[in-house]
Amino acid sequence: MKNIKFLSLICLLCIVFSLFTPVLAVSFDPDEPTVTETPAESAAPESESGKPSDAKPTAAGTDVVAGADVVKAPEITARNALLLDLDSGVVYFSRKPDDRAYPASLTKILTVLLAVEAVERGELDLKAEITAGDDCLQGLDEQSSTAGIVPGEKMMLEDYLYCAMISSANEACNVIARTVSGSIPAFVERMNARAQELGCTGSHFVNPHGMPDDDHYTTASDLAKITREAMQHELFVTICDTLSRTVPATNKSDTRELQNTNGLINPNSIMYPGYFYEPASGVKTGHTSAAGYCLVSTAQQDDIRMLCIVLGSGEGVRANGTTDYYNFTDTITLYRWVFDNFSRQTILGSSELVGSAAVEFGSDTDSVSLRPQSDIAAVLPNNVSLDDYERKVTVYSERDNTTVTAPVAAGDVLGEISIEKDGTVYGTVPLVAAVDVELSRGAFLRSGLQSFFAHPVVIVLLAAAVLVIVLYIVMLVRYQKRQKARKRAAARARHEASINREHQARDEIMRELTRDTESRRR
After folding, report:
1. Which distant-in-sequence residues (6+ apart) come within 8 Å of 388 by Cβ?
2. pLDDT of 319 above 80
3. Alpha helix stretches (DSSP H) within 96-183
4. pLDDT exceeds cutoff 70 at 497
5. How many Å is the Cα radius of gyration of the chain?
6. Is 331:307 a contact under the CB 8 Å cutoff?
């Protein structure tokens, strides 16, 4: 009995101890992998009011993983995460991508994008000298990330962009905002309008740099939309991929040596050393106590280009006493997961016949086979069955209730095909005629005549012509009848006149005979 009580006491102590022991997570260190505590700080989840709160990240279990039936989900600490194909937008991993979160300096992606677009439209000149206004320090505090720019300082617009993007200078963002839109408030309005244009539905910005504000928030999904657009602009890519830059001396400062804060791409990073990941490029780091540690980046291995967004990661302490920043370890974990478990595979070949379209007036056929204009390839789990992917074929003539008429040339676009699975579209390409279909002139002529005589106007005209002919015949018959009647009446009249004349001549002869007879009697 005493042994049982002793064992029960030990079990009870173990349970109590486990309640107060931090959860352990494996961190990434290229030199010394260790076990460390999970982050003490994190991105703020959405509160009941709809705004981000200061709560810590929830446990995993809400992750959405592409190919979950054949691929095990990666383990990360970030509260919000999104891993997607940079080109197609297909999502491979997501964790609460539509929950609101503070973006911190990731805000600068949109700020620099708006400036780059203004330059491309010819509204601004990269080499133009811009004077920092009195409002360049607006909204900043002593802990704010800056490049030491002060009111009245003159610098090229190009240098302000580099200060903002690779050095994360908040005051540079204020200068950019005034330069692009005339004032910071006007620029913020443009930020929100541009976000809506890009399809963002969960974002609201109140400043161009990302300093904390209850009304300044976004989502991983919205950041993906903004970043995918930004990565279409060569100037933006050049800026965010720059590791270091020398800014010439100005009227207020000596030469500045800028270093990219992104340790994922900068092997000499001072702020975040030890996270260099060769396949990576861009885009932006971000951190405030409310937002946690955030990172937007891209990476390419072979022909796979991925965009990764992690929000609300924390930090821990390695066994060697150095700090482990989980936004970098989470990002590297996601990239390694996708590159190890996925590959680009051809789901549909361009030589494959996938349907047919009816053709009228073909010389020797009444249909033409269809094939994809190009291959459909997608990043898929290595051991997935391609038979699991659904093909959705659309033949335009069938959809629109129209007709394809010969001649048809091989390569003519007659439809489209999409490859889908579980609601995700992995590719859509046109369907084209696989062969030529010559025109049958005889069939075309017959159809043309039939169509001509079937036209309502032609029918009306023909009916009118028939009616005119019938009326003419009726009138002609009636005329001929009247003419015959007149002729018969005239003949009768002539006959009667002849008889009358004969009667008169006979009567005259009789009178003459009578007179002669009377004369002889006398």
Report:
1. 421
2. yes
3. 107-120, 157-166, 170-181
4. yes
5. 46
6. no
